[in-house]
Structures are given as C-alpha cells and as structure tokens.
Amino acid sequence: MRGGWIGMLLSCLLVYSGSFVAAQAREAAPLAEFSVASEVWEGHSNADGSGLAWDLLRAVFEPAGVKLKITSVPYTRALGLAQRGKVDAVLGLYLNEADDVAYPRWPYADDAVVALGLAGAPAPTLQKLANYRLIWVRGYAFQSQLPTLKNYQEVQRRDGIPQMLKQGRADFYIDDDDEVKILLAGTEHPQDFKVTPLQYLPIYLGFAHTEHGRAMQALYEQRMPQLLRAGSLRPIFARYQQHYPYDSAEEMPNARP
What we know:
Largest sheet: 8 strands, mixed
Shape: elongated
Structural class: alpha/beta
Distance between the termini: 67 Å
C-alpha cells in the first residue's frame, strides 16, 4: 500500500515537472520571434519584408537570436493590433502620437516632413504654418508634432489632394517627403506644385504593454546604443538613400545616449 502511494506521488511529480517544463517552453519559445505590424510604405516597410525599417529591425534583433515577423495592414489596424497586444509592436509612430503603447528612448528613423502647395504660392515656414489652411492624411496627428497648428483638415485618402489644392480648398498638404513624391508621380502636371521642406520628425516603434512586448523593448533599448556606437546602422540608411538621424540624436525627443 505504501509503495502504491509512493508510486502515485512520483507519478504526480513527473506530471507536474513535465507540465512545468512545457509551460516554460511555451513562454521561452516566443522570445525567438518579434512580431511587428505596419502599413506598407514603399521603400520603408514593404509587404515582402524589404525596406529600411525591416532591414534595420533585422540588424537589431536577429544577431540576438530573435526572428522578425511582419504583418502588413493599414496604419490604424496596425496600431490597434499593438494596443490590444496581438503583436509586439507597431511601426512608424511620432512621439506620444498614440496611447496604450510604450515608446522607447531611441527612434529607429525619421520622417522628412514637407509641405506641398501650388507652384505660385509663397513657400511656407515652420513658424508661420499656423497661418495656412492645411490638410493631411487621417492618423498622422501633425497637430501634436508641429507648432501651433489649428486650421487643418484630415482626409482619408491621398489621391484627391492635388485637386483640393488646385480648387483652393486648402493651402498646403503636409506629409512625409517620400509619400509626396509618390503622389506627385501620379499626377498629370507635377510642375504645377512645389514642395517645401519643413522638419525632420523622429519616428518610433510603439511596443505593446505585454510581457513579451516589454522584453522586446528591453532588447531594443540594449541593442540600439551598441549598434550606433559601432556605426552598423549607417550603411542601411545609405542603401535606401535616406537621412541618417543619429548624428544629432541628442536633439531628438526621447532619445538620449
């Protein structure tokens, strides 16, 4: 009888031990993967996994044994996935642009923000931008990134913007320089418009408030300064002919060595 109890006890211990090891394996396994959602931005976060952002994140995470897993969806859905903890992070946020995600100390790139207007219009300055009627795509929240913007309208799509400017329904369209170039390439008379540079805005990953999201953020915070000191990220920006943002990192919001 006593031997039977001992056998049962050993069986229970083996089952518990096996369950514990299995649970540990389930917790440890996802650490080998970093899931990021993003809208498809040409040359930045292409759906096939190419682009500056994806190459940079692979350089950050893969040497640490973490594989990048991308999800290409519209911006608002990508943000929602991170806010609900369905992915570890969302790509392409301005600092404090959205709630319910965590911002790291280091941006991963920056946007060259420009104003698109009619060719004959005076060039706007960042300081006087509030004097004009502005438009931008919904979700970009430039009103929280550029100074004192009040008279603005958000639109759902970019394709009608040239016509809005020609009809005098807005003075300037605000967007990233690459997006403006793509827009102008699709117009019949791009010479009718003029692009004015405004400012570089750092862009960030928004990490999910989950245990795994926090682990990925900690790894990102650890790896970024190492790669910057080694100069390992500069060739990626050169490959895509993009502005290298880290020479003046001390001036970036949220970024400190």
